[in-house]
Amino acid sequence: MTTNRWLEPIAGLHRLDPQHTYWLDDHLFPVSITGVLQVAKSSYALGRIEASRSVWEPRGNTCHQALELFLTGRFRPDADPSEKHDQGDKTSGAEIDFEAYREWIEPLIEHERWGAVEVIASERPTCCLVRNVAGT
User: Fold this and answer.
1) Nearest Cα to 86, choosing from 124, 130, 41?
2) For residue 88, is it within any domain?
3) Which is more confident, 20 or 9?
């Protein structure tokens, strides 16, 4: 099912971290998808999210990185592994400890559904000028 057709990056679209701000050439998007979703959360929910950040953030970043490496390797085998993405290098040069989250990562990448889909992008920044929003 793999066709190796990968969506090209949107020329001129960049993400600045840690603020999650997006620019398309000289246009700053006033809000990202993260910002849109955050508005729907109560102050209680936001407080709980922040209170548990030290648990979910390293797990989430590691699982995201493992999934991106898996998707790129399986569905875009011609990719340059040293290629940097506009969302920034989450590892900051540090070695990633995938083993620590093996019980989260293995079921994700071993799921049978991967044989039935055609992945065309992974962690690809995108935007909509009509709605004035961007995200990854």
Assistant:
1) 124
2) no
3) 9
